[in-house]
Design brief:
Blueprint: E1 15-19, E2 23-27, H1 33-43, E3 47-56, E4 61-70, E5 75-84, E6 89-91, H2 100-111, E7 114-116, H3 140-147
Parallel strand pairs: 2-5, 6-7
Antiparallel strand pairs: 1-2, 3-4, 4-5
């Protein structure tokens, strides 16, 4: 591992998975998701690039993550947390970075993950009656057969 791009020592619950000169990959518990976002913003990681998710169906989990950039340090930080697929809910980051709203709407619509603390309107698939299409248990062939009465 090379030098960590953070200017200070992170909290104990901030688990560093990989660190190079200009990027850091870390995990935090769900309970610390917003707290670590605020801490990173106070350090100068003020640009939110994305909020997204990965469906780890075999583990029964979603990995929800955000990616930040610091113009001050010219470095990136990816922070991930894991939530259960059965009740996928996580606090919103839109109170910290307003542009998180768009990314959270996308994740909600495509994975079925809700972001507590805000209302989410449809973004891409308004009027969609099917399951979230980016979940690994979504069978698009079956959905098309049923939705369009194809035998």
């Amino acid at each position: 591992m090379s030098k960590c791009p953070l200017p200070v020592t992170p909290p104990k619950y901030f688990i560093i998975r990989r660190s190079e000169a200009n990027y850091l990959l870390a995990e935090v518990p769900k309970e610390k998701y917003v707290e670590i976002a605020l801490w990173l913003k106070s350090l100068g990681y003020d640009r939110l690039l994305t909020v997204s998710a990965i469906d780890w169906i075999d583990k029964g989990l979603f990995e929800v993550y955000f990616l930040l950039y610091s113009r001050k340090y010219h470095s990136y930080v990816k922070v991930a947390t894991y939530i259960p697929r059965e009740k996928p809910d996580i606090p919103t980051l839109s109170n910290i970075w307003p542009n998180a709203s768009f990314h959270e709407r996308e994740v909600c619509e495509l994975f079925g993950i809700t972001f507590s603390g805000r209302k989410l309107k449809p973004l891409f698939v308004e009027g969609w009656a099917g399951p979230p299409p980016f979940r690994k248990d979504f069978d698009w062939r079956e959905y098309v057969r049923e939705a369009y009465d194809i035998t």
